[in-house]
Here is the input.
Amino acid sequence: QLPTGLYKKVLVILHDSVLPYMNEPTLMMDFLTVAYGVGGAISLLALNGLFILIHQHNLEYPDFYKKLYNLLDPSVYHVKYRARFFHLTNLFLSSSHLPAYLVAAFIKRLSRLALTAPPEALLMIIPFICNLFWRHPACRVLVHRPRGPADMSEDPYVMEEEEPSKSRALESSLWEIQSLQNHYHPDVAKAAAVLNQSLSEMEDDISGLLELSAYELFDKEVKKKATDVPLEFEQVRGLFGKKNDIFAEHFSLD
Here is the structure.
């Protein structure tokens, strides 16, 4: 039993400072699978080590995607290890052999959580979702349904369902991203509008967006060159600004 702080420190360095130097890295299977089931930041950090065991040492983890799906909660857009988590999630969802219902469930859950996410996270997650559509064309039915439900309660997608296969994601639409087209941040609204167009022929590289911070976003806006905006207006005449108003005959602003 490790203290939480030490638990996190071990998991941060385990994948590159411990596993490569072990004669039998598979001895860490139990430790990592238990850590993956803890939840929160500890589960996110356990992903690195699990990825190595699955990818290089043939670890079979039947409920892996179910647990990864349930790690998606509102905190994933705010945690310190967000970049690491989405980098690995991108790798795990890169296989073209994944069933459409599973990928659709991830797309819907990410989209639903995006409704309350900060702008810097949205600028990363929208291209991420577009990449999932590019890899898995069967999920594009979510985009091709032009109108979402009249009321959120009518959406067939079941957000609370822990099993992706029972979430009914493929029966839904991507109204969440459509609503982000009216986002207060212009860059987010522009990114969300991409789904109105045909998808690009190649995946977008999201590596540069994984660690985008609110400070960088604000700094970018501040450094934009201001342009003079031409305005048309009528010069104010009279008390209430109307040319032929009776008040204009008796009152002057001079």
Remarks:
- The chain has twelve helices and no strands.
- Residues 99-225 form one domain.
